[in-house]
Design brief:
By secondary structure, this protein is an alpha+beta fold. Among the domains are: 93 residues, no CATH class; 338 residues, Beta-galactosidase, Chain A, domain 5, CATH 2.70.98.30. The protein contains 20 helices and 36 strands. A hairpin with a 4-residue loop joins strand 15 and strand 16. Helix 14 crosses helix 16, helix 16 packs across helix 18 and helix 19 runs antiparallel to helix 20.
């Protein structure tokens, strides 16, 4: 596969965006007409993820699933609040069943009606908003009016992504631009070798703008481009701006893709010194009527005026003092004590503030009067939420960067608040930290040949290969919020805005409603503790999740690139995870950790699991996957650095790990990522996943005979094709052709899935049918979404669509955990099964389809006795651990490993859903 250029990526993304607007969102040609008469779907009740009623809900988008055959593709929807009030809602399809009926739909709610505690969504006619959101593209800018604020957005060629934000005719903010500071080298040891290094400032330049949605409740504007300085452009970006009817807020989703160079041991490189969004805020109030607010931990706020008149030697009066602290307009200066009003010019104005969060555990705040003068220490604390405000009594801007301390180093800057125009910079990477260092972490250790690399794999579990530990093409997505306020917000309003930043209000359907829809092929069921046996399994699932949630805090699994991932293997000698030992370090979705968490959320509805899975999806879909270059579409196996291992495979980039987040939120960035995987089969032209262990002389290059495995390879490709098909994406017809052809020709192999691999035709999607039976079974084949893909295809498609597939998959399920004698009798040879506990879900699935009681019994036997967490030898307990044994006190459970946890979680959830009655 030729290397994908940046230009090609941007053009393809733009084309996909247009297709999204014209085909996906409008449900054009949903592949087979829906039945003339579709059954009525039951209404779905919705509640807020965190419960209760949020004090601030600037607008939200949520997803709902529907049973097959119940809703036509052109169905409209009505939303009512708990008190029966009709609520305006904007709806669009996000997935279809093969018969063309709706499978998943997305719905947007604005801020016009104010949040209710619960809602009901049903088929019907949506209520019209009193003031609908409008989008005007006729002029030189794209102008969005939410009914509260008016936002002017730049078109192609501009350096500002937002031209202006107005409210009631008053300009609140504008001239928003992306800023990158590039540094050519790092002075690692402060020895002066980098003393001459100077950073360069690059600003974002918009290359294309697309209106993806234009109301009446929700508008989505996509801007893409690169950061430019002089003749050089680098660091492609995609910005999406989300605006909702009746809202004063803008949600900004920012994605940056790294395309620089950092060579270990060599001088010079592309180090990111700072990365941020900068926006101007006009100021017209008197300095004593201007206010600075910076949020700290536990609802704390730094509450200051640009020119403070409290604490002075002379008292202006109680009414004046009280008004300034509250952020209200001060009484006329003629009413003040004249000893203050006459000497006001001697009271300094503080125009510059910085809140810097360089670690997960501490932030500092400092201020100065203006540039060129000294800073003074203001305060500090533990974990800032990344929220602030600058403005005056006639209006101002609240601003925030989500996951601020979790994705440190981050920073908030306010500059020039004593002048006519303040500047706010939300730094995704703080310029006060060391530059972002993406150099590979060791010198190769002499592993120059495949034999040496295999030997290295045997000791550190790291699959190293020169040149493969590159960050070129990885990405990171961040979320920012801007509020245009008519005046300085009250303390309660500021807290509400801060809370909406840290945990954006999200409407969700209950597990029962999602389960009733039949999504995910019946492989999960709502939490059920009705029997002692079920309760035991449920309690153990809770223990495992709680342990990982607490380990993230104890081990500080935070940081700009790291937040969202977990570690792979534990080192009981050091009482820490193997963060520095090759392939035992970061997990990178190994054995479907992401999928376990999303299924755990689906069945429980727990907010803490959702937020954990959300952070993981944001990380693993961006940092662990290449989005540019010759490996675009491939992910990286687990390691010390997320991009460091030489195993670049679709088992990591597979859409199955992103799919549920997308359907629950309709997140467009996640949709882009899943669509990008449709052509991942092209990578097999140049990169053979099995190149280091080949003995058959195969080399890639023949597009009609590419060696692709039926397990980790095909499942990753299959999930991309199936998701594109059900979304009716721009390439859904090609995706359907390849999915059906590949599934059918796997089934037609002499030994079906047990055959192991085949020669794939890139144009037709079919595998060549082999003449001789082969037994080639890997314990990993069914560990990266293969059982879930097979179940969905069997559930949704007809035997005529994929002839023989059901039988071939049932054979694999039946014999993986069978005795060697049974395997040999069926296939002519036996094979050693491992990860038996996780594979018990294959037994359960086969039992659920065939009704064979022996398979159901075997499922629970293998679950209880197989490798992983067998009942007889697993303690199911954690212990307290303190210093000096560990750096941070917490809990210890040396018996836990992430491989075992992910497979235990998937097996427990699926076994309970499929054959739980046998457990009872």
């Amino acid at each position: 596969m030729p290397e994908i250029s940046r230009r090609d990526v941007l053009k393809a993304a733009a084309a996909a965006t247009v297709a999204t607007q014209l085909s996906w969102a409008l449900a054009a040609d949903p592949a087979g007409a829906a039945p003339a008469e579709a059954a009525a779907a039951d209404p779905v009740k919705l509640t807020w993820l965190e419960g209760g009623t949020p004090a601030e809900a600037p607008g939200t988008t949520f997803g709902v699933a529907w049973p097959q055959g119940t809703l036509r593709a052109d169905q409209t929807f009505a939303l009512t609040a708990g008190d029966g009030t009709a609520v305006p809602v904007q709806s669009w399809p996000t997935a279809y069943w093969p018969d063309g009926t709706l499978k998943w739909t997305a719905h947007a709610v604005g801020a016009t009606a104010g949040p209710a505690e619960n809602y009901t969504l049903s088929a019907g006619t949506p209520a019209k908003a009193d003031t609908a959101l409008t989008v005007d593209t006729r002029g030189g800018t794209i102008d969005v009016d939410t009914g509260v604020i008016q936002v002017s957005i730049a078109k192609a060629g501009a350096h500002d992504v937002v031209r202006s934000i107005k409210r009631g005719g008053t300009e609140i903010a504008g001239k928003a631009e992306l800023v990158v500071l590039r540094q050519p080298e790092i002075d690692d040891d402060y020895d002066g070798s980098g003393a001459g290094s100077r950073w360069e400032r690059f600003t974002g330049r918009v290359g294309a703008v697309t209106v993806e949605q234009s109301g009446p409740v929700r508008a989505v504007i996509r801007l893409e481009g690169e950061h430019a300085r002089g003749s050089r452009s680098w660091l492609p970006f995609v910005i999406r701006l989300y605006l909702y009817a009746g809202s004063e807020a803008i949600r900004v989703v920012h994605t940056l893709t790294y395309d620089g160079t950092q060579e270990p041991g060599k001088a010079g490189g592309d180090f990111i010194k700072g990365l941020g969004l900068r926006i101007r805020v006009p100021l017209s109030d008197e300095p004593y009527n201007r206010h600075i607010r910076l949020a700290g931990a536990d609802d704390g706020f730094l509450t200051e005026a640009v020119q403070g008149i409290t604490g002075l030697r002379r008292d202006p009066g109680a009414a004046v003092r009280t008004a300034q602290v509250k952020g209200e307009k001060l009484p006329d200066i003629s009413t003040w004590d004249t000893r203050v009003s006459s000497a006001l010019r001697y009271v300094p104005t503080w125009g510059d503030y910085t809140l810097s969060q360089l670690s997960a555990d501490g932030f500092t705040v400092r201020k100065r009067t203006k540039a060129g003068h000294g800073w003074i220490h203001t305060t500090g604390g533990t974990r800032a939420p990344g929220f602030g405000y600058v403005g005056g009594t006639s209006g101002g801007l609240s601003f925030g960067l989500r996951d601020f301390w979790q994705k440190h180093p981050a920073q908030l800057d306010v500059r020039g608040a004593a002048s006519d125009e303040a500047t706010v910079t939300l730094w995704l990477w703080s310029p006060e930290a060391q530059p972002l260092d993406l150099r590979f972490y060791h010198d190769g250790l002499g592993e120059d040949t495949y034999d040496e690399q295999t030997a290295g794999l045997g000791i550190t579990y790291e699959d190293y290969e020169p040149g493969f530990g590159t960050p070129y093409g990885i990405a990171r997505t961040s979320e920012l919020y801007l509020w245009a306020n008519a005046a300085t917000p009250t303390a309660d309003t500021l807290v509400a805005q801060k809370d909406a930043l840290t945990a954006p209000p999200q409407l969700v359907a209950a597990p029962g409603a999602l389960h009733k829809a039949g999504v995910f092929a019946g492989l999960w069921s709502p939490v059920d503790r009705s029997t002692t046996a079920r309760k035991t399994v449920e309690d153990r699932l809770d223990l495992l999740f709680t342990y990982y949630r607490d380990q993230r805090e104890q081990r500080r699994w935070y940081g700009f690139l790291d937040y969202g991932d977990v570690q792979h293997t534990y080192d009981p000698a050091r009482h820490t995870w193997c963060y520095d030992v090759g392939g035992y370090a970061w997990d990178n979705s190994e054995l479907s950790t992401d999928l376990w968490l999303w299924l755990a959320y689906l069945r429980s509805g727990r907010a803490d699991i959702y937020r954990f899975a959300e952070a993981m999806t944001r990380h693993t879909s961006e940092v662990d996957v290449y989005h540019l270059g010759k490996w675009a579409g491939l992910g990286t196996r687990h390691g010390v650095q997320h991009f460091g291992d030489s195993a670049k495979q679709v088992r990591i980039s597979t859409p199955v790990y992103r799919r549920l987040f997308y359907y629950l939120t309709a997140d467009e960035r996640t949709g882009d990522l899943m669509h990008a995987q449709v052509d991942a089969d092209q990578t097999f032209l140049t990169l053979d996943p099995n190149r280091k262990v080949r003995t058959d002389g195969y080399t890639p290059g023949d597009r009609h005979a590419l060696s692709i495995g039926f397990g980790t390879d095909w499942s990753g490709l299959g999930w991309a094709w199936w998701t594109e098909w059900e979304r009716r994406g721009p390439k859904w017809r090609t995706a359907r052709k390849k999915l059906l052809a590949s599934a059918s020709t796997i089934a037609a192999q002499p030994n079906g899935f047990v055959q192991g691999s085949g020669l794939y035709d890139l144009d037709t999607g079919a595998f060549a049918i082999q003449t001789a039976p082969v037994v080639a079974v890997s314990h990993l084949s069914a560990s990266f979404g293969l059982p879930e893909l097979a179940a969905e295809l069997i559930d949704a498609l007809d035997e005529n669509d994929i002839p023989g597939f059901r039988a071939a998959w049932l054979d694999y399920c039946r014999y993986y955990n069978a005795t060697p004698a049974e395997q040999k009798a069926r296939y002519g040879a036996s094979f050693k099964a491992s990860l038996v506990q996780g594979h018990s879900r294959l037994d359960a699935y086969a039992a659920s389809l065939t009704g064979e009681a022996a398979l159901a019994t075997r499922a629970w036997t293998k679950f209880r006795t197989g490798d992983g967490y067998p009942d007889a030898s697993t303690s199911w307990a954690t212990t307290k651990i303190n210093g000096p044994t560990v750096l941070n006190a917490g809990t210890d459970a040396p018996w836990i490993s992430t491989n075992s946890t992910a497979l235990y979680g998937l097996a427990a959830i699926q076994d309970l859903a499929l054959v739980g009655d046998v457990l009872d």
